[in-house]
Amino acid sequence: MRTVRWLVLSTAIVAGLTVAVSRAAEELPAATNEANAPPTIPPPASVVPVTPKDAAPPPSVTIIGASDAHGVLGRDVRSAADEDMGHIVDVIVDLTGHVRAAVIDFGGFLGVGSRKIVVDWNALRFGKITNKKDSITLELTKAQVAAAPEYKEDTPMVVLGASGSLQPLQAIQ
């Protein structure tokens, strides 16, 4: 990988020097003869000219209105009965990048005695979250969440779902 980076960097430097020498030669007065003209340096064989077909296409651009989407990390989570359920600390995605679950820091006081549990993404209701003080609603009771096993990174996780509609992750080949 370092060799490729070095090759790209050295190629760019040589190409830049070639352009600089060519421009300097063009700026010489027309009265100079060939004996006094500076030698021109031909580009090395490793320099490949970039044509428009080699250039990367421009990225797509999507504009999302300020009231149309919001971040969820750190947001408070409350039950349908308005009980404090904690706050979202992580989002779990599968191997294809689809959001599957949220990790909630549940219980405790000021982070002491709390534990992380995983809930199905479909059990969350985002309703009105137009500002950071608005909370996300979880379709589970406090007792159900309290009974959930603790989430530990890099171990199999139990995802708590509101309606039992979760499907196990399939291995992607």
Automatic annotation (TrEMBL):
The keyword DNA damage is assigned to this record: no
Please give the PANTHER family that the UniProt record associates with this protein.
BLR1072 PROTEIN
**All copies of domain PRC-barrel, residue ranges:** 70-144
N-terminal signal peptide:
1-24
Name this protein carries in UniProt: PRC-barrel domain-containing protein
Q: Give the SUPFAM superfamilies listed for this entry.
A: PRC-barrel domain (SSF50346)
Keyword line: Signal
**Source organism superkingdom:** Bacteria
The UniProt record lists the keyword Signal: yes
One family from Pfam that matches here is PRC
